[in-house]
Amino acid sequence: MKYPLPSLIAAAAGVCFASVAPSAFAQSNVTLYGVLDAAVVMQTNTSPQGGKTFSVQQGGEGFLSGSRFGLTGSEDLGGGMKARFVLENGLTVNNGGFDQQGQLFGRQAFVGLSGAFGEVDIGRQYTGALLAVSAVDPLSVGAPATNSWQVYLTGQRFNNALTYTKSFGAIGVNLQYALGGIAGQGSARSSLSGGLSYDGNGLKLTGQLQQTRDTQSRTAKLWVLGAKYAFGPATFYADYLQSQRDAGFDVTNGGVDFASITNMSTPATASSTASIGSVFSAARRDQFLTLGATYNFNPVLSFTGAWMYNNTSASNFGGTRQTAYAILDYRLSKRTDVYVAGAYDHVNGDWSGLFGTSTTSWTGGSGVRLNGHDNQVTYYAGLRHKF
């Protein structure tokens, strides 16, 4: 039987391509993923006269997780090397809006390479200090301001960030640098972070150093130590961080967001500095402690409780904030759970009375506003689904 020349060429090419495909042409994949956490919320002291407020969702956030969807993908480049990317959007379930200042991929947006050398990622990423805290936090750092306000010291994300990570057995190392982007001022508006971790035999340990400079190269520095230990049905959590900020540190970063690093001065936004500027004029130190535990009654029912404490001291200011929260969580499946939760916030010292208006609030997705009171109680009944 005779075959036309084009058919022979096509067949030969097909055999050749099939023979080299496993090695010369990389395997790749793209995955759509997400989390939706919605809650009915009741909150006390929501006006100067007291009173309660009911809402479908407090500031668009549930209690356990920030809602999101994203794309992640990887490509096998051969020789043990892979390329990967993450594009992650934050959203508010109550109204369908964007979170993170309205950015399309405000949670994460980076591309990277991994191999025997470790992993290098470039783009918008979580801060090294936040990752160190979240690895040993009962909620991996929660969603609303009632249970996640350590992010106001660590910052949440850095733009223009380069991150290197490498594991040596149970030991992990990381180094992160966020470029400032100011012509002729290499270190201004930049951030540097580095740390170590251990993960083995049910024990997780983290340690991190971080420094951020504003447009005038004034610094905000912090260090973190944390631990998590799983023992039978129980897991215990503890972390401590200390932050020191130069006098006059510009929390608004000259009008250019550090990628939520403006949160480094609890509380701090461009609007709040005008109202309580004396709090930010002096050098200050924050000491932050979290203690918590989770107990699994069975494979589907668990209880988590935690206490968070922050002490702020400066030449012109001194005060504390405390939060205690409790969660009962029931898993309907591997991807869906329902929960009830409660959180109690309390401030004293010079923090007392500072929270009378929306401009003097704990910033964040939920914006805790004490409306001139020293305490507030928030209750949640929520549903979370992962896909």
UniProtKB/TrEMBL annotation:
Residues 13-349 form the Porin domain. Keywords: Cell outer membrane, Ion transport, Membrane, Porin, Signal, Transmembrane, Transmembrane beta strand, Transport. InterPro entries: Gram-neg_bact_OMP, Gram_neg_porin_domain, Porin_dom_sf. One of its GO terms (molecular function) is porin activity. It is a multi-pass membrane protein. The keyword Transmembrane applies. It is found in: Cell outer membrane. GO terms for biological process: monoatomic ion transport. SUPFAM superfamilies: Porins (SSF56935). Residues 1-26 form the signal peptide. The keyword Transmembrane applies. GO terms for cellular component: cell outer membrane; pore complex. Pfam families: Porin_4 (PF13609). Its main location: membrane. Homotrimer. PANTHER family: MAJOR OUTER MEMBRANE PROTEIN P.IA (PTHR34501:SF9), PROTEIN YDDL-RELATED (PTHR34501). This is Outer membrane porin protein.
